[in-house]
Amino acid sequence: MKKIISLFLLSVLMILTACAEPVEIGNTAIVYFSATGNTEEVARELGNMLNAEVFEIVPAQPYTSEDLNYRDSSSRAYQEDRDDSARPEIEAYDTAIDSYDTLFIGFPIWFGDMPKVMYTFFDNFDAAGKTLIPFCTSGNSGITGAVRTLRTLEPDADIQDGRRINTRNMEAELTNMINSLSTN
After folding, report:
1. Please, which residues have CB within 8 angstroms of residue 145's CB and are 6 or more apart in sequence?
2. Cβ neighbours of residue 67 under 8 Å, at least 6 residues apart?
3. Residues 125 and 97 sit within 8 Å (Cβ to Cβ)
4. Model confidence, pTM
5. Which of 140, 133, 142, 116 lies closest to 179, judged by CA?
6. What is the pLDDT of residues 58-84, one digit of tens each?
7. What phi and psi, each to the nearest 5 degrees, are found at residue 32?
8. Nearest to 143 by CA among 112, 111, 167, 115
9. Which residues contact residue 58 at a Cβ distance below 8 angstroms, ignoring those fewer than 6 apart?
10. DSSP string, 145-166
């Protein structure tokens, strides 16, 4: 009987959680780059959870699967990573991004860092005075190197530590990330 009651209460809690209104964290938007769709999936879910606008950073030349062959030293991603001055061209981004005070910044981790497409974005975007909350998707690398890069590229912004999000546990991990913001 206790198991049945526990299962019933758990079910009610899950239903109430699913029906809850999206959280709103001030003047917030989500900005992301995704090459394979994983980061986009996380960004869109985060946008739904926060009831926030979502903006995509789009490379002028899309990445192909050959470009993303990290084991091939002639692949585009590999070559960009090895070139500190690489700044792949991006399509013009929506300048509405400039009006937000807090930006969740999403990207995949390539070679322990953000893709150079994100460097291009930050070379053209003034984040001074803004709060940036990075999140990433990655098969096995963490976000620490990318956060270090962001702090170098945007020294006048408040760069949070950020989180690596696994798409298999996405909702729970995003909820934990959002909840940790209210306690900081």
Report:
1. 109, 112, 113
2. 75, 76, 77
3. yes
4. 0.83
5. 133
6. 999 999 999 999 899 999 999 999 999
7. -145, 160
8. 112
9. 33, 90, 91
10. HHHHHHHHH-TTSEE---EE--
Residue of 149, 167, 171 whose CA lies nearest to 159: 149
Amino acid letter for position 44: R
- The first and second tokens of residue 20, run together, are 């809850």
CB neighbour list of residue 144: distance below 8 Å, 6 or more residues apart:
none
The Cβ of residue 88 has, within 10 Å, a number of other Cβ atoms equal to: 17
pLDDT in tens, 38-59: 999 999 999 999 999 999 999 9
Residues 6+ apart with CB under 8 A from 41: 34, 167, 170
List the structure tokens of 126: 């003034």
User: What is the token pair recorded at 122?
Assistant: 């930050």
Distance, in Å, from the CA atom of 27 to the CA atom of 5, rounded to the nearest integer, reads 41
